[in-house]
Structures are given as structure tokens and as C-alpha cells.
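step 3/5: co-fold with pyridoxal-5'-phosphate
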Amino acid sequence: MPFSLPDAAWAASQDAADALAPLRAEFLFPPADDGSDCLYFAGHSLGLQPRASRDAVLAELDDWARLGVEGHFAARNPWLPYHELLTDATARLVGAKPSEVVVMNTLTVNLHLMLVSFYQPSGRRTKILMESGAFPSDRYAVASQVKLHGLDPQQTIVQLAPRAGEATLRHDDILAAIAELGDSLALVLLGHVQYLTGQAFDLPAITAAGHAVGACVGFDLAHGVGNLALALHDSQADFAVWCNYKYLNAGPGGLGGAFVHERHHDADLPRLNGWWGHDKASRFEMPTDFQAIRGAEAWQLSNPPILPLAALRASMALFERAGIQALRQKSVRLTAYLETVLAAVPGLTQLTPRDPTARGAMLTVRVHGDAGALVAKLHAGGARIDLRAPDVIRIAPAPLYTRFADVHRLGHLLLAATY
Ligand SMILES: *Cc1c(COP(=O)(O)O)cnc(C)c1O
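step 4/5: write C-alpha cells
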């Protein structure tokens, strides 16, 4: 086990042998108090700015200045089909066909759009299975959709909680809950990776279990995209939604994405429509009747914001350069090293599963003591760590720009702060 000795020389040797190491230079690091690059472990919350983002955005501002409305056709990258520039890279990243993905809106908006199509309670089949620890915005979205159908969220939303004394869900308990709900279950909606605990779920197995009882299955990939190597098409999931500003570095409030499995592309699903989902050939003839694009783009409502798309393109180019498989391989090793380092620090209990296949990059840790004070000390030492009050911290070594040496330095800061 090469990770059992978290010594500086070992960490340096891993960085020296890391084929992805040059990618770090493509990012801008906020400065620590002493002016050096901070140790950035908050990429699960907001990814760092790629150096190329600024020029990508400025290029569109310049084209707007130069061309005005003609930029829709005459910009260096014409704005009319601009969002399509993200499609192939996004499809590769999430393991989908290009027709199954679209970059648009933000996560919660996309979740609403998908719920309109994939939550169709009828008769006995009304229930939605979620995690008790689901991200609040997902809960608000789901509860409001349940009410729109005239149902009571309390009666309709079934919340899966970890067993007493446990921090994460057991896979078998998820499958058992789905089987038990049977024909009362309309939708399974889970996070992936779980935003708080870092637990990764088995998408294909959960999807198969949901489909076996006749339910739709969707996933919130906010913490999974750009983190795990996904195979959305093969998972058979009905839909997925995500944001691009966490591991994908799209920038604050950046655009999200959505996946709709191919088998729904010809289905006559209920859907909220807008002109950007209308057939491209006749869109500008301004016809009275809506005719959907075949694929995930049918869910688009408006013409998309070019500046955030431009910033996202700069980051996606780096993912294309690295390849998600290689990133994930590095990530597994980097997070295992972080796990070893954290185990050497007293007063911390890891909540994230120890099985590397059941987690992504991030480790969540319970602090026995004053977590706020610990995070403040780490901050003063130049490290950016996320605090979930009162006693939980989340640490994400994003493999695009984090070195083994950074994890080692964090270990030193943690030891200095806790002793
Ligand atoms: C970050 C995150 C969101 C954010 O939603 P926005 O609509 O992009 O603000 C939603 N769900 C989960 C699970 C998240 O981690």
C-alpha cells in the first residue's frame, strides 16, 4: 500500500510521475495571506477559474462589440448554435450520446423541467423516493411539484435515512425500499455523489430496481459530474441534471446540464416548451405550433447566455485534454492518500465510505472539537476547506489541479491545528 506512509518524498514522487500535473498551471489560484497559491480543497463547491476563461469571455464581448446582432451568424463562434459547441464534450464526460445531453439553465431549473416530464403521479403510483439528507433545493423543487399535482408532500415524499448510528446509506437498503414501495412508487430521485457525505451510489443497480417496479429514475449529478467516470446512457437512468460550476469550473452561477435517455426522445411526454426547443429548421419561421427537436435539446426554453457558455468551454477543453478516465484514476489515488493523511490526525472521524468505488474525490469528516476554529486556522495557513456547521468539514482534492504535495501540506496544517 503506497499510501501508508504520507511522507513528503513519496508525495513529491507521485507528482513527478503524474501525467496530468501540467494541467495545474492552467488554473488561477486565489492567493493565501502570504501571497502564495492557496491550498484549494473547495472545488466541490466552486471550481477554480481556468486561465483561458477570461479570454474566452472577452472574445464574445469583442464579437458583440464588433458585430452587434450579426454575431448570431458572424461571430467567430456563431451564437445561434453556440450551445452545441459543448455537446460532444459533455456527452463524452457523462457517458451519453450527444442527442441525450444539453447544457442549459441551472440545476434546480433543470430539475423542475425534468420533474414536469418524469413525475406523473396517477392512481396508486404517486410516491417519490429521496434521501432524507437530500440537498435542500432538490427537496423544495420536489415538494413544490408534488403540490402542483394536488398531493401532500408529507404523504408523497418517502425519505431514505441511514441506519441509526451510521452516516451513509446501505446500498441494499436503497434497493429494499424501492422494492417495498413497489407500484406506489412514481419516481426515484437520488444525488450522485451525495453532496454532504460524499457517498457515490450505484446508478445502474438503482435504476434497474426502480424500473423493475415501474418507476422513473433520475439523478442529481451536481457532485458526480467531472468527478466520477459516468456511463449515463448504459445506466438506463431516465434523466439526470447537474451544475457545471463545481468540479467542472464553469464559474459562479454557471450553466447546468441535463440528460434525457434516448428511449424518451420520441415519447409524447408532458414538457414545458419554449422556442429554443423547437425544430431548428423552422424555428425562425416563427410557426404557431411547437415542434420539438428530437433529443434533450427539446427541453431548452430560451436562447442561451453566450458569456457563461464561453467560460464553460474553456474548462471543458481541459477535461477533454485530461480525459475523465485518467482524471478518475488519479483521483482515486489522491483521495486514498488524503484518507491516509486524515487518519493520522487526531480528533477526526471520516464519514465518507472507505470503499473507493463508493465515493468520488471528496472526503467528509466529523471534527471532534471546534470545527469552525479548525477551519479558521487552516484558512490562516493558506488552505480553503468547506465547513458545514456545526462539526463537519468537506475536503475535495480535485484531480485537475491538486497535487499530492498539497495533500501532504494540508496534513501538516491539520496536525498543527489540532495539537
Ligand atoms: C450544488 C448543488 C445544487 C445547486 O443548485 P443550483 O440550482 O445550481 O443553484 C443542487 N443540488 C445539489 C445536490 C448540489 O450539490
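step 5/5: annotate
Residues 106-108, 135, 137-138, 191, 195, 220, 222-223, 243, 256 surround pyridoxal-5'-phosphate (CB under 6 Å).
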